[in-house]
Amino acid sequence: MHPFLNDSDPGAEVNRRQFLQNGSFTTLMALAGGIPVGAAESPAPADAPSNPGGSTDYQGKSPTVKVGLVGCGLWGREILRTLSLLANAPVVALCDTYANHLKRASSVAPDARSYGDYRAFLEDPQIEAVMVATPSHRHREIVLAALDAGKHVYCEAPIATTIEDARAIARAARDRIRLNFQAGLQSRADKQIVNLANFLRLGVLGRPLKARQQFHHKTSWRRTAPDPEVARQLNWRLERAHSLGLVGELGVHPIDLANWFFLARPLSVSGFGSLVQWKDGRDVPDNIQARIEYPGGVFLSYEATVGNSFEPELGVLFGTDSAILMRDRRAWMFKEADAPLLGWEIYARRDAFYKDSGIVLGAGASKLAVQEPKPASPDVLVDEKTALQYALEAFLINSHRRTTAIQDFSAAYDAADTGALEEYLADLEKTRLPAAGWREGFESAVTVIGANEAVLQGAHLTYDPAWFELG
Amino acid sequence: MTTCSKPIRAFLSWAGALLLAGTLHSADAWLRYTSFPGSKVTIEGTSTIHDWTVEGKVIGGYFEVEPSFLTDLSLQSVKSLTTKELNPRVESVIFVTSLKSGKETMDQIMLEAMKADQHRFIRYKLTEMVLKGDVPASGSPAKFDTRGELAVAGVTQRIDLEVTLERVETDRLRISGVKALKMTDFKIAPPAPSLALGLIKTGDEVTVRFEWILRLKAPSD
Fold this sequence. Notes:
Chain A is α/β, with parallel strands linked by helices and 471 residues long.
């Protein structure tokens, strides 16, 4: 535990936590009956016989959904690479206004047709589902057109840069009951984080107090291109006119987690922003803080900078019974001494550190054996799937389920009875693989749009509840 | 949608044939009840590690019977329900893609085992339906012994089944029943994942429970 995270008496911290020393959240989760955080699918033993004792060889493969990608920049190509890992997601079409991006994307998806115009792209009848990874301010027109064209839509987060655009997308997605819409808040589909959210529902935090999330990277956040005009377009993130800045374009993910974990909409936000490191003509801050207030006196403090890389992605949830530390999709719980004993915790594995081998500044803390780097042990499971892979798998499966559900229902019943169809689909929603839908996409967008406004103004801003209404 | 692949096209043509058959039948003035939302089918099974259930809510098809079915609640004058010589015309389908276990992989294995890419639905066609015992004065419930042909995964078997018919509201029927079946009777190999070294085996026998809701089709429908 680094003193940055808790600057109270480190000795006392150690004593309070001795019962949890050398314990990991993974084991806690396993003993709690959930799928353990860090769980990965068990690989087949290399020497497993192929057909022992009359075993069957059903593959259980997910059904195929043909995909088109619009927006083939860095993140778009990350989506492509992830799709290429999936057996059920042939990429049939690519779209970008920048030829270089298209060319690079084509090297990942060589069989896909290329389009320079999204309208022509959406007319491609092969495409069943569209991934939208364009600049955020271009989402609205493309998402609405894709839904109109009868395509399932995965829209990157934030889904929009204005409340009006976010509302238009959410309404359209809500009203197209035959189509699946997923917002690109991949943590909502990530098995590791879903398990953590379920664990929080057990009340282990006690009374929630606050959360802290941060994003620290040393990077210009700038893309390069030989043509100055193209470079300007590629660097839309650095212009206030098109970008929600660090708090919106990146912060939407951890801030959405707070909305989810606290099951609440924010009440107000105070923002701070400065441009310190990258005075290269950009007008978005490179160093920001936002303090978001939730009902019940709960706060989220979000900090982001592209001028320093210490503790790149970190989250801590604080409650009256425990604190939960999140790093790289892993989590650890640190219980208060007066918190109720959880039956399984005496069996728990304990880790007092993660990857860092930084110097522990707290007096006495360096005596902890757990600060020594340990070789990876077999019981430290690493999830081979990324959050994005979980999100894309969920999107494809949920999209296919919706298509087949409507086909089944329409074949059996009066297709004109939309009320009955809606009821059937609502029932189907109960078995939907966890993933962010239009509501989460909308509310997270509204949250960060407000936060960005507060950051730019250096002001305290109250969220009008009407902003969260779809009408 | 490009998912409109061969099996779906085959299904659509089958559905078209069903509609056509319905049109022809309507000429003889029999009542026609057609599937209505609210149906439920569950398949319960076992395995060496835990019992399992899949559930579906889509049962398609129709039930055709003489007009006296509406007026004679005792059913004694309804020949198709009291004699083997004349029988109601009943066909139903359960879409295998609508059956859900709550676990995606299990669903996919089930679809694979049931050869869903070639046989998208379980199809039942009734051949005999005979009233069993007396019908209460209210006309509901009535029990019947039935015989029919059940096609699963491309294999057709004759099955005998006791069903209960209830009149619901003024124009609806609920037909329900329970039947134990064996997967192997339909040439379905009970899943036993090779990854689990054959330690996990699904039991051959399953219990199918269904509640099929139908609504009387008005002449204008």
